[in-house]
Write a structure and sequence with these properties.
By secondary structure, the protein is α/β, with parallel strands linked by helices. The protein is built from 19 helices and 18 strands.
Length: 487
């Protein structure tokens, strides 16, 4: 508790130095989260900050550490039972990770007061999780809306599922066994390994000054069923903005002219109609294959997908209808994927079809549900959404909590496919390709200032920044930083 409170107080001082001249108000509850708040109060008071504590309930007998923290700080701070008139920083220390259900009584009134103060222009800092938010599920009826959430020892699942309530999230080291740093964790009770800037930057392949289109690799993109050329166009543009050397698009013959006009930098062909075309245009030419954007779910496209997979062994990314055609046929898909790096990129509904589950079950078990499917298929499964979770065939799990609601539009997954296809061609590692692509895709959306009004063209134009602008590692004791989402 002392480490948690001291770390939070240091971060509050660092971020809100000017605002602290007007004082800080801390709302405390009866449990250990309230104890954390009392430690913050004492630490800030030691540094000359005028602190007022609004105690919604005294520390309970079950929280002796909280009682000790209150006793230690109470002489240096003011205690009140009224909402503050002054103080531009508000600290939420009402409810912690053990809370489930719906806030009631004085706690509910305090949550409402905090949110009203934020509406009046105060900055709100939540300790561990915003009060009223279920730390495991992200469920909430009424919860604190924070500008900053200081999470202790690691980031909670619920915070990643309800990022719009949390503002910016930082995790600080308080001496616990840190689950954020272990990329090899297999414990399903823990959060998957966090993919951050350092993880990505250490794995993106370097492009040398003497690179050419061959060394930057070749990517085939097969999709574009009748009336749906746009998905292949988007995937091609994102691949070209991700450093691929050469792209060959393969679409329904009636879409060739439209795709050629929209992507003059790419080679252009129709769907392969013979084994020799599969061999010459994919097997002998491509370093990776993206299969599915805009393909369409028809008997013809299923035969095409099965034929291509049966007669190639290049690394492959399957998206959209290339997955939908295998609804209820996972064993057949596993046989076709065998012997190659494979990345599957379903959204929740596509995953549900593949797994034979309903979408509510998939959403409720987002962090764990792909483990068995990935092992069964011998493939990496990237479950798109908020947050994106990647499941490796060896049981590894990774979470990528980046991006904004600007990605919630038709064609966004096609951009991701082009980014991931490029990395799959350049690394032949499906897990690295999926994790890095999801992070870059999300970061590009974050560089767009708005959600309403942002288009996929804006995200495409932001990709060079997402690839190239460094994101420095956070200084100790901060373990991780997740930016606030644009709303």
């Amino acid at each position: 508790m002392q480490r948690a409170g001291s770390g939070a107080a240091s971060e509050i001082r660092r971020r809100y130095h000017e605002r602290l001249r007007d004082g800080v108000t801390i709302f405390t509850g009866p449990g250990n989260n309230g104890g954390d708040g009392w430690v913050v109060a004492g630490e800030l008071a030691k540094n000359g900050v005028a602190v007022t504590v609004i105690e919604t309930a005294a520390p309970s007998e079950k929280s002796p550490d909280a009682k000790a923290a209150r006793d230690a700080a109470s002489k240096a701070v003011g205690v009140s039972d009224k909402a503050p008139r002054e103080g531009s920083v508000i600290v939420d220390a009402l409810l912690g990770t053990g809370f489930v259900g719906e806030p009631r009584g004085a706690i509910a009134s305090a949550i409402s007061a905090i949110n009203q103060l934020r509406g009046d222009g105060r900055k709100v800092v939540a300790l561990d999780v915003p009060s009223g938010l279920d730390a495991t599920t992200g469920d909430h009826s009424e919860c604190v809306m924070a500008d900053l959430t200081v999470s202790f020892g690691g980031i909670k699942r619920g915070s990643l599922l309800a990022r719009d309530c949390c503002g910016e999230i930082i995790a600080i080291d308080i001496g616990l066994d840190n689950h954020l740093s272990s990329a090899a964790t297999r414990d399903l009770n823990r959060l998957p390994a966090l993919v951050d800037a350092q993880w990505v930057q250490s794995r993106i392949p370097h492009i040398g000054y003497d690179a050419h289109k061959g060394s930057r690799k070749h990517l085939a993109i097969l999709g574009g069923g009748k009336g749906m050329p746009g998905a292949v166009v988007l995937a091609t543009h994102s691949a070209l903005r991700s450093g691929i050397g050469l792209v060959r698009t393969m679409v329904d013959p009636e879409n060739q002219s439209a795709v050629l006009a929209a992507t003059p930098s790419a080679l252009n062909a129709s769907w392969p109609g013979s084994m020799s075309e599969v061999e010459s245009e994919i097997s002998k030419w491509a370093d990776a294959l993206v299969l599915g954007p805009g393909l369409g779910k028809t008997p013809e496209t299923k035969r095409l997908v099965e034929s291509v997979l049966s007669n190639t062994r290049v690394p492959v990314l399957l998206d959209a209808d290339a997955l939908n055609v295998f609804e209820g046929e996972r064993q057949s898909l596993a046989r076709l994927l065998s012997g190659r790096p494979a990345l599957l990129t379903p959204h929740v509904a596509e995953f549900a079809r593949l797994a034979g589950a309903d979408t509510k079950t998939v959403t409720a078990n987002r962090f764990d549900i792909g483990v068995d499917i990935a092992r069964e298929l011998g493939a990496t499964v990237l479950l798109k959404g908020s947050p994106t979770v990647v499941f490796a065939a060896d049981g590894g799990r990774y979470v990528i909590p980046r991006g904004t609601a600007a990605l919630g539009t038709g064609g966004s997954g096609d951009l991701l496919a082009g980014i991931a296809g490029t990395l799959l061609a350049q690394t032949a590692d499906a897990t690295v390709a999926g994790c890095c692509a999801a992070w870059v895709h999300g970061r590009a959306a974050e560089f767009c200032s708005y959600v309403r009004g942002t288009t996929l063209d804006d995200i495409l134009f932001a990709l060079p920044r997402a690839w190239n602008e460094p994101e420095p590692a956070p200084p100790p004791p901060i373990l991780a930083v997740i930016p606030a989402v644009a709303v």
